[in-house]
Automatic annotation (TrEMBL):
InterPro entries: Acylphosphatase-like_dom_sf, BLUF_domain. This is BLUF domain-containing protein. Residues 3-94 form the BLUF domain. SUPFAM superfamilies: Acylphosphatase/BLUF domain-like. It comes from Thalassotalea algicola. Pfam families: BLUF.
Amino acid sequence: MQLVRLVYVSRKPQHIAEEAITNILSFARSYNIKNNITGILCFNRKYFLQCLEGNRLTVNQTFQRILRDSRHEGVLMLDYREIERREFAQWNMGYVPDSTRTHDIHLKYSSGTEFEPYELSGQSAHLLMLELKNVLPMSE
């Protein structure tokens, strides 16, 4: 089996209510468990930054579904690569909301303390999510 990691960013459309995020997380967790996808989702009420890990075909199909999902706008793939092992193996979809606790970490990988994932390189986005995983408690 060929494992891959895909990192993408998108915006939440203005017409989508906050409750939709809970639905996205609930569906993603269920779908990911069934399809052996692991990863993390960072969200600040405006932007999504997500990492998906798993079988190449399954991750590609999942990303295609996200591209068609009206709850995402401006979807941009930041990184896609083959990996030797999963880095979010315990998280079928870890969720990291933006908070003041994350501002120093954002500053470390971007130009400021605000969560602006479109400004990140693929590598910076990946490193940011790894650090958030290691610093913050898992929210499942």
